[in-house]
Structures are given as structure tokens and as C-alpha cells.
Amino acid sequence: MATTTAAPANAVHLAGRVSGGPTERELPSGDVLVQLRVVVPRPAARGRSAVGSRQRVDTIDVTCWSARSRRAALRLADGAGVEVTGALRRRFFRTGAGAASRYDVEATSVREVSLE
User: What's the start-to-end Cα distance of the chain, in Å?
Assistant: First the structure.
């Protein structure tokens, strides 16, 4: 078996629909961010992968930190087609029950698109 090489990468590309519209938040630090959810349909499962989950979509949280991505996200309406590029991030925070974490996509670009 031949060994292939790959450079480490953390790149995400999503195309789906906005769910619920974007929300803008100001953090205690004064930083402003925009968050939105993108719903992406899963391809029809075949063979072994068809067994198990009947989930038909993935709902993915997206966070926009740059001024450009925030402006683009705020123009999106609920149900709009959207294309997002960025990186997967794991966020850590505290809750009443203790430490917790979640994954989201940190967007570097956001644009409205027509979906097929």
C-alpha cells in the first residue's frame, strides 16, 4: 500500500440555507460577532451508511468575527441560500453545570447564493 502525504488543514466549505436569521452580539470585551445557523441537506445514504441515523440534514453553527463576514451575514434572511468558507473551531465556556464546549465554523467568507 502506497503512503500519501498531506499537509495539515482545517478548511470548511458549506452551502445550505440560513435557519432563523443571523444575530449580532457584543461580548463583554467589546468585540462584536454575528452568529447564524446553516442547514445543509445530507446526501441520500446507500449501503452500510444507510443503516442507523435517519437524520436528513445537518444544522451547523457559524460565527462571523471579521467586519466583512459580519456585514454579509447580517444581510441574510431566514431561508436564504448561503455559502460559507472558514475553519472548524472548538469553543470552551462555563455553564452552571461546569465547563462545556461546542464546535462551530469560524467564517472567513459568507455570501448569498441560489441553491439548486
Answer: 39
